[in-house]
Please model this.
Amino acid sequence: MDRKHSDTIADELRADILRGVFPPGDRLIELSLTERYSCGRAAIRAALVELVAEGLVEHAANRGATVRRIGVAEAIQITEARAALEVLIATNAARQATDSERTELLSIVSQMAKSVENDDNTVYSELNRVFHRRIREISGHQIASELVANLRNRAAHHQYRLAMMPGRSKVSLEQHTTIAKAIAEGDEPGAAKAMEHHLMSVVGVLQQWGDAGPD
Model:
């Protein structure tokens, strides 16, 4: 009998993929995964089916399951879709946020500023993830939040690469600060505009990568 439920295995495998334990193109061998996650093959297969549906994993004949590579063109489309949804989320967050949640977002931005001062892009990348996740949670819009979480996961490799770009964190910090302040002030149009500007800035960088040639 499996020691863990397949949903738990999917969560752990997803987290490992997003952390880069299994980079894009890596084969996901069932036997190795059963040993890593202390479970049976049935749980691994169920988890892989779930991650295939999310777009994180692909399954090909004669090759098995691999971590899916996301090209720049697809990453651009993912970010454009995110922008439409996250504008809605930011608007709702500005409307719904409690005083403590507004303070929390401003605190996260302050931590982001410290990571920029320390030139710690890894910490900045993690805080960026937390910042967007908290806005989704604060918004109370469950459907949009679930869709955005899925889209972010699919393009995680490009998000990490973006965070590691020299000078990018300073630009990003200014944008996140504007978003946080608008939400803290309950400025719904301002939050929507700031979020759209931020994600369209990401699209702009991705387009430059695409113009530079193959990823």
